[in-house]
Amino acid sequence: MVNPGTFRGGRKGFLMGEKESYYAARFPVDLPLDVEPSAEALAAVDDDTAEPEPEEPKEDDLDAEEYQEALKRLQARRDLIVYRKGQIKRWMAYQYMKDHELNATESGAQNPFSILLQQLTGVSFHRPRQKTPANVWRRTNREQIEEEAKRRAVEDTTGPKKKLAPIRESVAKEMFASLSEQEKEEWAQVAKDEHAALLAKYKSEVESPPSTEPVDRQRQFSMESVP
Question: CA nearest 76: which of 36, 24, 23, 30?
């Protein structure tokens, strides 16, 4: 997934609040990420008009060296577009996980009864562990992994039918391994950020006094909270 700090300033505001509009029209791929577009450029955006495609270099108008350089620039731009789309997709996936609190569990440091029990008895529960980058990436790619695993299971006619679980594990490992080093580094950073947030929450819940809010007290002493 993307480093959540990749998009800042106007880019972050746009992605957070204007998901139905067009990103590239406001923030051209050629514009460095640390440069904000001018107010005039943003005001001139027309979402009803398609963005013009870069022209293919004409071999007849250029000498051999110029033509090859033009082709390289065009391909580099196309590669950057693909990469930027991937960054946005990973950023959206990160925000989805964050918005829906997919990291929250009702065990360990997240369980109010366990927190109270530790404060009263001094018996500690496990600190949250940092997930691997592959496991964090996997949460946002379950559908693709499942689809490929099922396809392989159907096409495998070499012997007895394999259970889907080991095929799924193999697919997930291969897909993550195929990511670029930059993408792997971004997912590693996401894993670190998530772990840091969980540790901060763990420390806050362990060291702070039990909540006196009625809803929290009810949760703390309900039979459903008892291990």
Answer: 30
